[in-house]
Target: MFS transporter
Amino acid sequence: MQETRTGTPPTELHTGWTWPLVGLAAVLAMVNFVVDSAITAPLIVLPEMLDHFGTDQTAWVNATAMLAGVLWAPLLGKAADIHGKRRILVLTLLLSCAGALLCAVAPGLWLFVPGRMLQGASLAAVFLSVAIVRSVCAPRIGMIVVGIVTSGSAVLNIASRFLIERLAEAFGFHVLFLVSAAAAVAMALCVRRFLPESPVRTPGRIDVGGALLLGGGLAGVLGYLSLGAEFGWLAAGPLVLLAGGTAASLRWFLVSSRKPDPLIDLRDVSRPLALTLLVVFLAAGSYQSMLQLVSLIGDVSADLGLGYGLADRGSVALLLAAPGIGVTIGGPAAGWIAARIGPARTLAGAVLLGTAVTLGMFL
Model:
């Protein structure tokens, strides 16, 4: 695909730390804090949300944001190539704000779930942040900046966990979404004011049909997994969802393999890329599952004699804040190591470290 440039003159790539680069990294790190407030922070009040809506479907209450983010990310990424990264990043933050406001006022799941799906758009901000860094930095310094941008927000996350828990106790879980909406608007203004717009444009079109097919397929399969346990795995309703989801996914695969400018071009997925994506998929899924289980286990009272004893003030926030310490250290460290030995070896080392720590939890 041929790239074009707007009238904005090209800027030189950053090869070392300068004050403009420090400012850009700070703004993008705060953007990633908004992502966390939309995707992960609601886990702190997950038990309260389940009680409020009278459901035990944790996947629909929380995981819909991540599921929708999987669809938003390629759509908004393609839009950024066509219309500019800064402009689409602002749009992404405003979509997250709109979703947070819907969640704050939702009287039931029928409005709360669409709100979470809009909040899922914030996940695209992570990838747009990386793309912006790569467009203004030389590769060596760029890896370090990416590590700081994607993990620097963890410093704020550590403190925000305790603040959010206290606010939720005082005003209800809805306050979390109001805070998320305010943060999204504030960062949209900062991005518009302080970040430069890339002059590079890539002509193309946005595959909305592919997104609908893929989203319908994933939603159908998720619906079967969520409702099968309640109504029966061989009941008519869950089986219809499974069949519809499978058919939509197969249709998306066949269409995407032939059409130009698909949502995800499977023809470009080589074996090394496929293995990398598999590692990222498994790592992100396991991390998100761990956080979701922690919030539910942390709500168990010690009086039940199950050995948890974590249902005291601050315990859930502490458990959810602890990974932030590792993220804060690991992000910049991974960027520094990758700049010296390569990203493939760094990723392999991270996988081995994660596996060893996970096995250690059984001891």
